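G., the chain you wanted modeled:
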Amino acid sequence: MDIKFLLKPLLIASLAMGLFVSCSDDDNPVGPEPEPEPEPEEQHPYADDIVENGVILSEPIEGDRTLSADSVYYIDGYIFVESGTLEIEPGTVIMAFEEPSEVAEGNESSLIITRDAQIDAEGTPEEPIIFTSELDEEPFGESIILNQNNSKLWAGLIVLGKAPIDSEGADEVQIEGIPDGEARALYGGDDPEHSSGILKYVSIRFSGAEIGPGDEIQGLTLGGVGRGTTIEYIDIFVSADDGIEIFGGTVDIRNISVAFAEDDSFDFDLGWSGTGQYMFAIQGGNGADHGGEWDGAKPDNNSSYSTARLYNATFIGQGLNSTERSEDAPAVMMRDGSAYSLYNSIVTDFNGLGIQVEDKDESEDSYDKTINNVNGDDASIAGNIWYTGNASSIETMISVTGESSRDADGSLTAAWLNDRDNVFEDPELGGICRIQGCGVLDPLPASTSVNSIAANVADSNVDQTTYVGAFEPGQTTWISGWTTLARYGYLAD
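Predicted structure as tokens:
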């Protein structure tokens, strides 16, 4: 489907002036006629082309509504879906204005699904649903205008739910990235089975706009989302902040691709206790931070905290010799009393260390909850391949930080990781590239360890795999064909 539009919104103004003077034979002059009444200002001050060819979303959505693939939709400011179900048909394109108009709510463009609403956005590999910038002139092809350096063109997609969170004992809090005091931006509750709907085969591009200095919105933000929600086959391409951030909740995520996030690729916080499987990330030379920043709760010693279990990830950093990050920066960071598990994954091509675990010498820290298993969570980091620039072994890729000195050299953590079949070696990916159109990115590993170290897991929520990494060896990758990486020519296939 080819889409050609005038892309930038324009203010429409009209000015009409008239002056008519006439004289009669009796020399009685007639004064100027009154100026005509000004024409009423149009409801949406956009270019005629956009009004004619697209549908403007500039007001809250109440009740059920369907967005059809027959139209193109433009997000103007904050669009809260307050109630009902927002259905988005396969192949629908939703564009966001970089600069919202004067009739818009908020200073950036974002779609926010509130706790009392649902989203039904189920695309297909042939017809994904695309959220992108108004400047994306070829959403279903390869842009000649935009690339991996074009972040902050709009804010992002936010989904809020009623599942439990762990934040200062509160049942509900306001999502970050929205100005304080907005009741519609609250998330959290007491329903772990709550459903916010479905996101499947959805592409989110060029996001991360700031609502204030240093306050950006992620590509996809999930707040208190319950396990009744489906989040699968999500493509996040270029975000000025994190690719995806999950605040609490119980939702399970699968088949998530994050390319060129400028902060963390996968950021988890406030007691998320779901599962994640088949997660892919590649970072670019844009100052990106961690592949994973995995936090626990507020405060650290909260009685409940993050216990999410993650399987089959492939995280590719900025390059073993990159100077964009500190050589001490870890690819994965666990802190704030979290107890995450990571199984059967590949962490490679980061310039710094492999993993950092926070140890405050207190029962609520991540070190005790994972390495020492003080609360019986049985968190584990098992069956993974690590390969980073500032290390040469499992022993040298570890950083244990905090007030405690009980494992200052990381030797205890290293022994724990070695006992769980973690190896430090080059996974021998088929190809890595970060240039649009390169056509050589192949995240399938050739290392023989891929099929020999995979840990057996007892988790009914995930597929039982016998390989390491996000992609099954010998098969077409699940990012082929429909993601922005595929459409922009990064992939080898």
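Residues 1-30, 38-44 have pLDDT under 50 and may be disordered.

Shout if anything looks off.
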